[in-house]
Amino acid sequence: MAVYVALLHSIVLGARRRVVMADLRTMAEGLGFRNARTLVATGNLVFEAETQPIASIETQLETGFAAAFGKHVDIIVRDADMWLKLAGGNPFLDGIGSEVIIRVMRQPLAPAILDMFAKYQQGERMAVVDGDLWIDFGLKASETKMLPALTTKRLGVGTMRNWNTVRGIAQMISRDEKVDV
Known about the structure:
This protein has five helices and ten strands.
């Protein structure tokens, strides 16, 4: 059995309809995944499954989600080792947890992508670490011009989580695997 993390791009199903995390866990377990649990109500799922290719798990979850909730949602999956490496790669540890954001990517970004965002930057720090985009908004994420520029059209399939959530998921995994974070 391996531990996996799945991040849903959006849990909004339509006007005033959001995915309930208990329903998300039920959907995952209905697909044969075990010990499904969530962290906060933003589409963060940790579960166990037989070792298999990440793309296979993403396809299973996306297909299952569409069947259960009537809408396609991009779902990014990492195995436990990949997630712990991601969490260990934060280049902005001096930032505030809710203002440091990572865009977890399905296909890795090249560091050259940072040049595209220079015209939007207003003091934000940015880095690409192992293909994922890290941004430290420095206490002003709600005021930035950067967020509207971080689109799937520009970057490819990915989803954003703040550092507090990334750390929380790593702690969930560490309890499962008895690994320090």
